[in-house]
């Protein structure tokens, strides 16, 4: 893939790393899918039991079991690949991460503002209460 865009060396190397990762993922997908198709084809091919002796049927049964195991391994490999891709997306989606960080920051700022307002109200109430208590105390001293 030729690039007409001349970027910084780090951008070019990052782009090349992404291209290599994509090629590796595509190769894994192609390999696993081709194994699945081959195994299913082999199972269908040996499934016909007409005019076969017991030894041949047992042999083909074993072959079907081994092909089934390979199908399971290939399916697990594909599921692992899906998990890797999801994890990569979650960890490297900078737009989503920055949006989530911004939302969290706004929520924390809102909480900070609410707490500050509550403290200011409590301070005002405390000042009023202290003033009232001092008034009552000094008034009781004058009256005594």
Automatic annotation (TrEMBL):
Entry annotated with the keyword Nucleus: yes
Main localisation: nucleus
GO molecular function, one term: transcription coregulator activity
GO biological processes: regulation of transcription by RNA polymerase II
A single GO cellular-component term on record: mediator complex
Cell compartment(s), UniProt: Nucleus
Keyword set, alphabetical order: Nucleus, Transcription, Transcription regulation
A Pfam cross-reference name: Med22
Entry-linked PANTHER family: MEDIATOR OF RNA POLYMERASE II TRANSCRIPTION SUBUNIT 22 (PTHR12434)
Similarity comment: Belongs to the Mediator complex subunit 22 family.
Designated name of the protein: Surfeit locus protein 5 subunit 22 of mediator complex-domain-containing protein
Species the sequence originates in: Phascolomyces articulosus
């Amino acid at each position: 893939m030729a690039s007409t865009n001349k970027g910084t060396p780090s951008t070019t190397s990052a782009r090349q790393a992404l291209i290599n990762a994509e090629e590796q993922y595509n190769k894994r997908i192609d390999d696993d899918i081709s194994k699945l198709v081959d195994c299913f084809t082999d199972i269908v091919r040996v499934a016909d039991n007409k005019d076969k002796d017991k030894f041949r049927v047992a042999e083909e049964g074993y072959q079907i079991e081994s092909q089934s195991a390979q199908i399971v391994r290939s399916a697990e490999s594909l599921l692992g690949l899906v998990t890797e891709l999801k994890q990569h997306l979650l960890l490297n989606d900078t737009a989503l991460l920055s949006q989530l960080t911004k939302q969290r920051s706004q929520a924390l700022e809102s909480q900070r503002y609410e707490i500050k307002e509550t403290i200011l109200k409590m301070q005002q109430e405390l000042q009023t209460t202290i003033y009232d208590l001092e008034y009552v105390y000094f008034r009781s001293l004058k009256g005594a």
